[in-house]
Amino acid sequence: MAEDFGEGSTAGMDEYETLMATTDVELLKTALRNEKAAPEILQFQAQLVKRAREQIQLMEETVEEFEQSGMDPLTVSLYQMDLDRAQFLLRSYLRVRLQKLEKYMFYIWKNDSLRNRLSEPEKIFVKRCIDDMEKHLEETVLSKLPDNYQSARRQSIISEEDDMVPEPQLDTFVACKSSNRFVSLTLVDSERPLEMERHDVSFVLYKVIKDKIGVDVDLV
Amino acid sequence: MSAGFCFSKENMHGRLACRLVKEFNSGEKGQLNHFNEELLNEVAKECSENFLVLQSLIRKMQEEGLDFQTTRNADHYGALINHLSLIRNKRCLMAYVYNRAEMIQNLAWTVGLRLFELPEEIQEKLSHPEKEYFKKHSLALESYMSKVDLDLNVDMVPPKDPYIKVRVLDDVGEGIVVSDKAANFARHSMHFLKRTDAELYISRGLMEELTG
Predict the structure, then answer these.
(1) In this complex, is the C-beta atom of B38 within 8 Å of any C-beta atom belonging to chain A?
(2) How many CB pairs under 8 A join A and B?
(3) ipTM for the assembly
(4) Cα dihedral angle (B113, B117, B121, B124), rounded to 10 degrees?
(5) I need a surface site. Which of A23, A95, B43, B137 has the fewest CB within 10 A?
(6) How do residues A88-128 score in pLDDT, each as one tens digit?
(7) CA-to-CA distance for A18 and B165, rounded, in angstroms?
């Protein structure tokens, strides 16, 4: 931990850590962690995913080349392991997003700002999910109900808003870690802001930090 | 009662719907029960009955020249009760089907994307529309995967070693090519395979990982 070092080396450590934390693998790991811990869908990291894919492809080519050139199998398998880990991160990231989309398809689709956080293939996926789910509910339940009660989103025609759409619980606590040297958060129920230094972990309401994810804080 | 609802315990509004939801909940975690079409239809029938009573009460008030929006008599509350019972029944029906659909989505991730990949004992618990839903949802997933050109239903656990030792549990058959190497995967034979190749067969119960 940083406390163990003198003033001078703290700055050095910080620099080193900043450098380490900005490799794409680390960024992808952070993106995955944020996505996993956040109750709602976050902005799709298009650039990062693109870079990660390019790097994975490069690694695949390298491994293949090594295999063909009869390189020492141990070295090849080390490269292979590195490749597997990168693949796992990328897959997990895309997967955890899809699973969120499955869970909150109706909610995400009707909310413009959430919908705009999706990649193009994700948008197509949600649209299909909604169609399939609606058809399924229609066939199994809704078609058997009286006329005024056949909406999948509303209880009956007198409902003024969607009152049957599953929504994520935003009023929940998450653990977050400050990613900047100094972060000050304004809490709802306290007059004093919550001040965090780098690496401090706090347990706060998701609503309070949701706009700061990836900027000032990362979820853990 | 003129309001048209009944206090006898057997026919109390919402009782059947409650049974339906409880039935879903009683299954072991992650385990589907048989789709109870009969009970579901009975609840739907109760909804129609609610609706008939509701309509006839409204009609009665109209015939008496009463304004439904403002009059607060027994008929009004009777209609209201039937409306609320109907909504409650609807929510229970939807919860039953929707929660099962969520478990079906989960099957696509954990077991396989094709209906024939699901074990017999799971398949027979699904209704016909649920099987259709499974197929369609799997197609949506597959179409996403082909667009991003990446299989997402492999690599479910963090990789430790790129190779794992497996034992074949079933006659996987010949002609299966794993990472461009064809091998004879006879039952009980053991192999040292790439984890990504083996995962597919492990999730289907055709191979098991040997640890230690």
Answers:
(1) no
(2) 114
(3) 0.86
(4) 60
(5) A23
(6) 999 999 999 999 999 999 999 999 999 999 999 999 999 99
(7) 39
